[in-house]
Amino acid sequence: MILAFWCVLVAAFMPVALVGYAKFTGNRRMSPKENHHPRVWLEDSEGPQKRAYWAQLNSFEAFPPFAAAVIIAVIAGGSVTAINILAVLFILLRVLYGWCYITDRASWRSMVWFGATLCTIALFIVAAVG
After folding, report:
1. How many C-beta neighbours within 10 Å does residue 121 have?
2. In this model, does residue 110 exceed pLDDT 90?
3. pLDDT bucket at 105, cuts 50 / 70 / 90
4. Percent of the chain with pLDDT over 70
5. How far apart are CA 45 and CA 50, in angstroms?
6. Structural domains of the chain ordered from first start
7. Which residues are CB-contacts of 90 (< 8 A; sequence separation ≥ 6)?
8. The model's pTM
9. Residue 112: what pLDDT?
10. What pLDDT score was predicted for residue 25?
11. Hey, what's the torsion of the CAs at 113, 115, 118, 122, to 10 degrees?
């Protein structure tokens, strides 16, 4: 299995890590009682916890195009080296994106989001020229 497929797995579980941060760090941690309505609890959170939740939502949005791009690039016979580099770069940028979101670095967050989005677009280009 190529490295890019492992990156798809990491990207699939990145939202879980972000919501874990939201639920189990900070001053207001989620209790078992509050787990009956986790979305209500997350909506009522504030600060870094709320931003981690928002980063989770954005990670759900970023995952399908990325996963499709990796799969399509491989099926189309694109350069495995290029696919792996772009997939790893996507993951690194998305981790940085989460950090920027949680620590409220809005301008950096937007630039990093754009970089990760360019990786997804580049994967489709690799498929097109593959």
Report:
1. 12
2. yes
3. very high
4. 100
5. 5
6. 3-129 (1.20.120.550)
7. 7, 11, 66, 116, 119, 120, 123
8. 0.94
9. 98
10. 86
11. -140
Contacts of 118 (CB under 8 A, 6+ apart): none
pLDDT of residue 36: 82
Listed residue (61, 21, 17) closest to 45, CA to CA: 21
Concatenating the DSSP letter of every residue in 53-89 gives: HHHHHHHHHHHHHHHHHHHHHHHTT--HHHHHHHHHH
Q: How many whole angstroms from its chain centre is CA 12?
A: 8
Count of residues making up the chain: 130
b/e code 34-44 from CB counts within 10 Å (16+ = b): eeeeeeebbee
pLDDT > 90? residue 30: no
From the CA atom positions of the chain, what is the Rg in Å? 16
- Tokens 């580049």 belong to residue: 122
Mean pLDDT of the chain: 94
The answer to whether 27 and 61 have CB atoms below 8 angstroms apart is no
